[in-house]
User: Which sequence fits this backbone?
């Protein structure tokens, strides 16, 4: 019977000692919320070196602004100012209670949507547009009265990127393709690689990826190398114009890494977002806010990075809101003109 | 009211047991089905800096085989639970934990204890355990261990129909699987896509210096008939890793098991 009593006492003791076992929970006050966020970035963010951010100096600027009297609104403002220095749209913070959402360096990306209209393209510039239903945002058609194909890819996502081979089969008799990746929200790098394989002219090293794996800003795991190569039965190696804007982002930019290594591809439009890394798991703060950040470093074969820079176009041009309202897509028109001026394709 | 019903049930079971003639260990094999309430306390730094707690249900199947006239014991257990975990920070940060384990053990009765009412079994078991956390598909963490544990069972026969048993297992050599430094990432995803088995075993070998995992169970067993036993048990699970992405988990499990003997 003693054993039974001893067991019951042990059970009661062990059931009532949560804090002793787990340790004291994180305090929900402005100072601690700031410390957790700053330290988490300090220990895990992957792009301090690439984006040349002095995180310690930002601490000395923003930490003194936070005290026990700091309101939620003030803390939100301090966080967004702090994170804006990263200019990284894979970094953001969200207040789940109010649905308030902030993405670092996103203003230019967001504004670019005013310079793009799919319906305008369909109505004014295309003979027809066929939507590939299995893929998230893949469609194609033919430019009116021209021997030029048009493909729109708005995301590197869908059931089967191999569908691009069918698209190429349908368009291969035409003399050029305009591949429009404006307002491309990204997706999977593997999807981007498969799409690019339909345009590849050879196999070559195009980039490497390293993930941060230690407390120092320079701690990264081994480089993983990525190559582009021909995929599918037939590749389109006639002139290809790829159209970009500020919201060609993430896996959309990885697609550009592939495409720009091919000699028959020309980029026309605006510079891309310059955000390559994968996003971290969502992170949590004691005040209930959640946030995420970049954890990787994408490097070109020469060791340089396009993070924070983006793909700079061969021919720079962008639409503004007035252009679209006037039913003109200057970027697409420039691509058509370029194909005629450079290759005589009409 | 629940306490009164429980008291009546236990009393009835004791009365019923006393009316039977055979001993509690009258058969070689025993299969049990367990239903339990599980209370979890968790801190997983790979997932969140916050403390979480919550409750959920657990189901378990176990098998026992007495060998060599009750001088050795073969055990096999399968447990599975799903728990909703909450934090004081915000109810919007609540998430789900899935946990499962499989254990197969072999124990021998020691001769240390001469009292016929008491017996002590010592042995080894193989244990494979997996825990998975997910917050709205946007944050994930996991913890798996596979390896050898030392296991001991002490039994005290209150009467020929009633038994109190306590069991302790402590892992000694384990493959410890945790997310990489920066959480579930592209490489983890690639390994997962290639082979779930490879993913589940993609860890580091460690012992008590890297991982502490205590499984302690106290059980009251009563014989209902020649073929049926009923158990009431309390189990404590305590897990702790000592690497960068530290994890601490405590589970209190209160359960009832119905056993069929053959």
Assistant:
């Amino acid at each position: 019977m003693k054993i039974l009593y001893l067991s019951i006492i042990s059970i009661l003791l062990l059931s009532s000692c949560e804090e002793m076992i787990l340790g004291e929970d994180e305090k929900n006050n402005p100072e601690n919320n700031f410390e957790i966020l700053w330290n988490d970035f300090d220990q895990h963010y992957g792009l301090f070196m690439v984006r040349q951010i002095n995180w310690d100096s930002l601490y000395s600027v923003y930490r003194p602004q936070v005290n026990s009297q700091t309101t939620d609104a003030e803390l939100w403002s301090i966080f967004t100012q702090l994170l804006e220095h990263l200019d990284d749209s894979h970094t953001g913070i969200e207040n789940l209670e109010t649905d308030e959402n902030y993405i670092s360096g996103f203003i230019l990306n967001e504004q670019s949507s005013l310079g793009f209209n799919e319906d305008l393209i369909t109505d004014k510039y295309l003979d027809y547009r066929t939507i590939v239903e299995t893929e998230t945002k893949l469609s194609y058609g033919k430019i009116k009265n021209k021997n030029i194909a048009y493909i729109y890819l708005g995301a590197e996502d869908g059931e089967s990127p191999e569908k691009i081979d069918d698209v190429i089969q349908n368009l291969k008799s035409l003399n050029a393709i305009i591949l429009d990746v404006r307002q491309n929200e990204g997706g999977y790098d593997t999807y981007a690689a498969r799409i690019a394989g339909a345009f590849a002219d050879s196999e070559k090293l195009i980039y490497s990826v390293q993930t941060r794996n230690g407390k120092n800003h320079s701690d990264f795991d081994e480089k993983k190398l990525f190559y582009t190569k021909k995929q599918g039965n037939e590749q389109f190696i006639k002139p290809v114009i790829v159209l970009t804007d500020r919201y060609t982002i993430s896996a959309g930019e990885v697609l550009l890494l592939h495409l720009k290594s091919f000699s028959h591809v020309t980029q026309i439009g605006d510079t891309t977002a310059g955000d390559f890394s994968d996003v971290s798991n969502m992170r949590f703060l004691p005040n209930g806010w959640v946030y995420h950040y970049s954890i990787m470093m994408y490097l070109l074969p020469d060791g340089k990075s396009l993070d924070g820079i983006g793909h700079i176009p061969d021919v720079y041009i962008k639409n503004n809101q007035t252009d679209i309202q006037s039913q003109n897509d200057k970027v697409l028109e420039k691509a058509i003109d370029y194909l005629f001026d450079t290759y005589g394709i009409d | 009211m629940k306490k009164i019903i429980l008291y009546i049930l236990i009393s009835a079971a004791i009365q019923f047991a006393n009316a039977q003639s055979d001993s509690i260990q009258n058969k070689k094999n025993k299969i049990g089905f367990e239903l339990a309430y599980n209370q979890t306390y968790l801190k997983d730094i790979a997932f969140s800096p916050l403390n979480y707690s919550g409750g959920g249900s657990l189901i378990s199947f176990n098998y026992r085989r007495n060998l060599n006239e009750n001088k050795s014991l073969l055990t096999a257990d399968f447990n599975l639970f799903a728990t909703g975990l909450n934090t004081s920070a915000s109810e919007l940060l609540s998430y789900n934990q899935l946990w499962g384990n499989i254990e197969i053990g072999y124990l021998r009765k020691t001769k240390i204890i001469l009292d016929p009412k008491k017996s002590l079994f010592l042995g080894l078991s193989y244990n494979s355990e997996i825990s998975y956390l997910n917050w709205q598909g946007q944050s994930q963490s996991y913890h798996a261990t596979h390896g050898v544990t030392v296991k001991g069972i002490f039994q005290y026969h209150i009467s020929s129909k009633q038994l109190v048993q306590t069991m302790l297992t402590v892992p000694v050599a384990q493959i410890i699987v945790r997310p990489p430094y920066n959480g579930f990432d592209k490489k983890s995803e690639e390994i997962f896509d290639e082979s779930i088995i490879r993913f589940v075993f993609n860890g580091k070998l460690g012992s008590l210096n890297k991982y502490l995992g205590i499984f302690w169970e106290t059980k009251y067993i009563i014989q209902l008939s020649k073929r049926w036993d009923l158990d009431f048990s309390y189990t404590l699970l305590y897990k702790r890793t000592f690497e960068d992405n530290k994890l601490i988990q405590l589970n209190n499990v209160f359960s009832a098991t119905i056993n069929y003997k053959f």
Summary: The radius of gyration of chain A is 25 Å. The longest strand of chain A covers residues 204-211. The longest helix of chain A spans residues 30-44.
